[in-house]
Design brief:
Layout: H1 6-53, H2 56-103, H3 108-146
Helix pairs in contact: 1-2, 2-3
Length: 157
């Protein structure tokens, strides 16, 4: 195995920049998603306390809100997992790029597979994220209806 010269290494580093930008962007999405999950957990804890102190009439409404929060938590968890897998695949993609050049083997099929898997995970993560956003609007719509603030317009899906 011959060491790579600077002239051989620079194009390889340039090719690796794309997956690194993806890792950085998905990292910011992960930050957003974990913040949303934390807010859902905090709100669920707050509603849980309210359920214990609520009258029978209010318990049903509060449990409905808790059901929505649980669904949202599942969606966000799924989005986080998919985004994390995307980052892992991007890391493997960078490793595959370097190893294929260092070891001198053709790994086009592996590189394409890793890239497609990476992008598919990002697309699925964003789909779950959008589903969570829509569900949070449904919860807001219910809460506004239940509090009698139906003068405020919350857009339908």
């Amino acid at each position: 195995m011959n060491p790579l010269s600077i002239d051989q290494l620079v194009p390889l580093l340039q090719v690796s920049i794309g997956p690194m930008i993806l890792v950085s962007g998905v990292g910011l999405l992960l930050l957003t998603m974990t913040n949303r999950l934390a807010r859902v957990v905090d709100r669920a804890r707050s509603l849980g306390r309210e359920v214990r102190d609520a009258t029978d009439a209010d318990r049903g409404r509060l449990r409905g809100q808790l059901d929505i929060l649980m669904s949202r938590a599942r969606l966000i968890r799924s989005a986080i997992a998919l985004a994390a897998v995307s980052v892992l695949l991007a890391g493997f993609l960078i490793i595959a790029l370097f190893l294929s050049k260092l070891l001198g083997f053709e790994a086009g099929w592996l590189i394409c597979t890793l890239f497609i898997g990476c992008m598919a995970c990002v697309v699925l993560a964003m789909t779950e994220f959008l589903r969570d956003v829509n569900l949070s609007l449904s919860a807001l719509r219910l809460e506004l209806r239940d509090t009698g603030r139906n003068r405020l317009r919350v857009p339908e899906n």
